[in-house]
Design brief:
With 192 residues, this protein is of the alpha/beta class. It is 40% helix and 22% strand.
Length: 192
């Protein structure tokens, strides 16, 4: 997947990486590339342990106090360490993006007996209702940029939600052509 390649492009030597629980989709690739991956959920590390990379994959939007969480993680970054975040900016899901996602879901699950929302408008409403308690992308981005020196890259997200590895190319093309919004973002930064 493009995200895995993107992450690996920022890690140039064997590194010690602190990952959240959602990183399972890339932890194998990181391990094969010679990196030591430590799951954040295990909290097996002492307060003075440092990591070359802190990687958060689709979890920051669920954190109640994002500033405190990021500050706590930043304390574990080695000098010149990087934080890499992949998440969703829920507010960027508009009706045209929902129409694209609905048609993609219908195409993917045509032969399954899976219940889809009635139409794209129902999917749009369901998306926002299910994510109403999530942090919005701007809040996450402001917090990241206030603590780290880095950049935001608009990113694919729907194909990850759909577990559709082939959809990444289609979603990237739709974003580049202006057909849909980029619902995801990647942040890469270092401590200031």
């Amino acid at each position: 997947m493009e995200f895995i390649s993107h992450v690996l492009s920022h890690i140039h030597q064997p590194s010690r990486i602190l990952c959240d629980a959602s990183c399972s989709r890339i932890s194998d690739a990181l391990g094969r590339a010679g990196h030591e991956v430590v799951p954040l959920a295990h909290r097996e590390f002492a307060a003075d342990h440092t990591f070359d990379i802190v990687l958060l994959d689709r979890t920051l939007h669920k954190v109640a106090d994002v500033d405190a969480a990021l500050f706590g993680l930043a304390r574990h970054l080695a000098p010149e360490g990087k934080v890499i975040v992949y998440d969703c900016a829920r507010e960027t899901m508009d009706r045209r993006t929902a129409r694209w996602l609905y048609s993609r879901r219908a195409e993917l699950h045509r032969e399954e007996e899976r219940t889809l929302p009635q139409n794209a408008d129902a999917l749009f409403l369901q998306w926002h209702e299910e994510r109403s308690h999530y942090l919005d992308g701007l809040t996450m981005e402001r917090s990241l940029l206030s603590l780290f020196d880095g950049y935001i890259h608009r990113e694919v997200y729907c194909c990850v939600e759909l577990a559709d590895p082939d959809g990444e190319v289609a979603e990237r093309a739709a974003i580049n052509e202006g057909v849909i919004n980029a619902v995801g973002f990647t942040f890469v930064g270092t401590t200031e």
